[in-house]
From TrEMBL:
Top-level taxonomy: Eukaryota, Haptista, Haptophyta, Pavlovophyceae, Pavlovales
Organism: Diacronema lutheri (Unicellular marine alga)
UniProt protein name: GTP cyclohydrolase 1
Transmembrane parts of this sequence: none
Keyword list, A-Z: Hydrolase
UniProt cross-references to PANTHER family, sorted A to Z: GTP CYCLOHYDROLASE 1, GTP CYCLOHYDROLASE I
């Protein structure tokens, strides 16, 4: 396997381990932030395929931080079961946050299609969501339901799931995640309306703190006709089975 191409980035780049698999150069704004990770493009490449062997300074710092955490927990980071844990955890964290360097435009690509007869509401429901809450860096997970009213253009259905995935793979709060997905769809497609509903359970509420494992949080973001027109909103909620 040939080594992945690296794209110029700042020294402080959290995702420098996971460079683009081709020599594609990111937009300048993205270069200053994070590296592109192939793990979100869903084309079958795993992180093992794209992660270079040579550990970088940033990766070493992450691993050192995990070693410190283990020591503070009273563990021995050198015992057999934990020896590779700092490496695994750094890799897992980078994987779970690999949505930073992508943009919605990049994710959608050319998959916007002119379509005169496209009905009223398009709903992609039960899209899996796995994210990390930015307060505790613990997972929250559940489902996203994304709907829009087309205006002579439709989007490739998988791209809806990819937009959800891209924003989920960042440190998030559920409300912002919901709004970001709605805004991205609105910007990419310019539909008549957008509605996003996300239902998640938060491990920070289930495993620790208040310890209420059954609690489910629902958030909603509405734009355009799906916000302003009661009939469209009711239609959407009925389609979702909540009307
Ligand atoms: N609004 C919102 N809150 C979240 C989300 N994820 C986690 N939180 C909350 O963030 C809050 C952080 O509150 P703090 O009091 O600063 O932290 P804490 O002491 O760990 O709070 P407890 O969880 O109540 O023990 C908690 O109430 C979490 O439930 C989210 O996606 N949206």
């Amino acid at each position: 396997m040939s080594p992945p191409a690296h794209v110029a980035c700042e020294e402080g780049d959290l995702h420098e381990e996971y460079a683009a698999p081709s020599s594609t150069t990111l937009p300048a704004a993205d270069q200053t932030n994070h590296m592109r990770s192939d793990s979100v493009d869903g084309e079958g490449a795993s992180l093992d395929d794209v992660a270079p062997e040579r550990p970088t300074r940033k990766r070493e710092r992450m691993e050192e931080a995990v070693r410190t955490l283990l020591e503070c927990l009273g563990e021995d980071p050198e015992r057999e079961g934990l020896r590779d844990t700092p490496k695994r955890m750094a890799k897992a964290l980078l994987d779970c946050t690999c949505g930073y360097p992508r943009t919605a435009a990049e994710v959608v690509g050319d998959a916007i299609f002119n379509e005169e007869s496209c009905g009223d509401i398009v709903l992609v429901r039960d899209i899996p969501v796995h994210s990390l809450c930015e307060h505790h860096m613990l997972p929250f997970m559940g489902k996203a339901h994304v709907a829009y009213i087309p205006d002579r253009k439709v989007i490739g259905l998988s791209k809806v799931g990819r937009i959800v995935d891209m924003f989920s793979r960042r440190l998030q709060v559920q409300e912002r995640l919901t709004q970001q997905i709605a805004n991205a769809l609105d910007e990419q497609l310019a539909p008549k309306g957008v509605a996003v509903v996300i239902e998640c359970t938060h491990m920070c509420m289930a495993m620790r703190g208040v310890r209420q494992p059954g609690a489910l949080t629902t958030t909603r973001a509405l734009l355009g006709e799906l916000r302003d027109c009661a009939q469209s909103r009711d239609d959407f909620m009925r389609l979702l089975g909540r009307g």
